[in-house]
Amino acid sequence: MSNLMQNMVRERKAGKIAGVPSYCTANDIVIEALIRQAKELDVDILIEATANQVNQFGGYTGMKPADFRDFVYEIADRADYPHDRIVLGGDHLGPLTWVNEPEESAMDKAETLVKLFVEAGYKKIHLDTSMRVADDPTDKPLTDETVARRGARLYQACEDSYQEMLKSNPDEKRPVFIIGSEVPIPGGAQEQEDSISVTKPEAVLATLEEYKKQFAGISDPKAFDNVIAIVVQPGVEFGDDEVFPYNRDNAKELCSKIKTFDGIYMEGHSTDYQPPECLKQMVEDGVAILKVGPALTFALRDGLFAMSEIEKVLVPESDQVKFPELLEKLMLDDTSKWAKYYHGTDKEIAIKRRYSLSDRCRYYFAMPEIRDGIEKLIRNIDKQEIPTGLLYQYMPIQYKKVRDGKLKKDAKALLMDFVMDAADDYNYAVGYIK
Question: CA-CA distance, 429 to 336, in Å (whole number)?
Fold first, then answer.
């Protein structure tokens, strides 16, 4: 079993700069690309699923926690990458998908959720109880006491499952835990903003102290020692058409305060599209876990759109997939996954459907029509010999790698390289590549 998270904590406690990229995605091509890249770099990998992607009812992927584990492991087998080098994580685990229910039923479901993640072997658990449920007051924010009390309840459920696992495997490794959720809704900011507010140090202090207080009632007397990070907003975000880069001066006070808590580091969500030097600075400043998700599927979409342009040139029109048009049709047939997120004129919204950095496209990628379309597009391209100039025109980064003998000129390899290129910024930030 990988010691990726424990090694990161150990190195940071020793005064070294260390970080971990956290890849939050359920797309098979993206996951395969990331695993193959990890194999090339000879590093372990952290792959996460969110509570709305994967839960006891299947989530929007149709997978329960054990199903997602097996899904990732099957991909790893194709890449000849050992299962024990993979750390699986559960993100935003709590009442997220049951906020329309009262506390007791929402939290009962959340307890079942976290237990299933632990029992399936997930070793990084983000406990997120920051959202209101149906019987919470709507005229004021949730108190730290309410959030931490619910978080402690979920930790106890995890601990109960872990203790059961120890009975059959005394060497079972305990999960590590992340608390807090100082982030906007998944998928990036919805509104145009001039700047992003950094989490206030006093808010971090209050959260950590309340969690310590609530965790004191857990059966495991060292429960809080297993919390390795708190989710913060270090001042990074992205919207439809903008990216807010990290400014270490703005985050200086926050980073200094976190350093006073031994063994607690920061997890940064919404780090997608950040410049590599900004990501590196975040790791240096204590944002030890860099979560990325939409940027990965955005890169895949970019590759699919580029490949569709190559298809237009090489493949008879009657045989073309016309992937952008296929995606557009499905998005218009079912607007539920993007309509409340995209605003503007009809033209502006049409552009956002295809090119928004928030990448609501990704919610359609599990549909059979999209999966079949991607497979056919790959077959169409693999039947052709892509002229060098055409490859250069639509895939200039991949062209250079093909030219230099570093990349095969087959369709799936080309698509995966778009994802690898995006992930390289995170590999650079944590020191996997120079």
Answer: 36
* Sequence-distant (≥ 6) Cβ neighbours of residue 193 within 8 angstroms: 237, 239, 244
| Residues with Cβ within 8 Å of residue 124, at least 6 apart in sequence | 5, 22, 46, 48, 87, 88, 89, 90, 175, 176, 178
- H helices of 234-367, in order, are 252-258, 276-284, 294-314, 323-333, 346-355
Q: Which residues have C-beta within 8 Å of that of residue 53, sequence separation ≥ 6?
A: 26, 59, 60, 61, 63, 68
Q: Which stretches does DSSP call E strand in 55-161? A: 86-93, 124-127
Average pLDDT over residues 39-61: 96
The pairing of strands 124-127 and 176-179 is parallel
Q: Which of 47, 97, 94 is nearest to 70 (CA)?
A: 47
Within 13 Å of residue 133, how many CA atoms lie on the same side as its CB? 21
CATH 1.10.400.20 residue spans of the chain: 298-418
Query: What is the percent of the chain where pLDDT is above 70?
Result: 97
Predicted confidence band at 260 (pLDDT cuts at 50, 70, 90)? confident
Listed range (195-209, 279-293, 330-344) with the worst mean pLDDT: 195-209
| Per-residue pLDDT, 182 | 65
Label residue 191 exposed, middle or buried (CB < 10 Å: 0-12, 13-18, 19+). Answer: exposed
Q: Per-residue pLDDT averaged across 95-112, rounded?
A: 97
Confidence of residue 137 (pLDDT cuts 50, 70, 90): very high
Q: Residue with structure tokens 């939409």?
A: 294
- pLDDT of 192: 44
Q: Are 149 and 212 in contact (CB under 8 A)?
A: no
- pLDDT confidence of residue 389: 97
Domain 298-418, CATH number (from 3.40.50.1820, 3.40.50.300, 1.10.400.20, 3.40.30.10):
1.10.400.20
Residue type, 114: V
3-state class percentages of the chain: helix first, strand second, coil last, to nearest 5: 50, 10, 35
**Which of the following CATH numbers is that of domain 4-292: 3.10.129.10, 3.90.550.10, 3.20.20.70, 3.40.50.620?**
3.20.20.70
**Residue 217 near residue 153, CB atoms below 8 Å:** no
Task: Determine the Cα–Cα distance for residues 78 and 87; give it in Å rounded to an integer.
Answer: 18
Cα distance between residue 93 and residue 107, in whole Å? 11
Token representation of residue 132: 């209101």
Measuring CA to CA, how many Å separate 156 from each of 224, 226, 264? 11, 12, 20
Phi, psi of 266 (to 5 degrees): -105, 145
Look up residue 205 and give its two tokens.
């202090």
* Locus of tokens 């990988």: 2
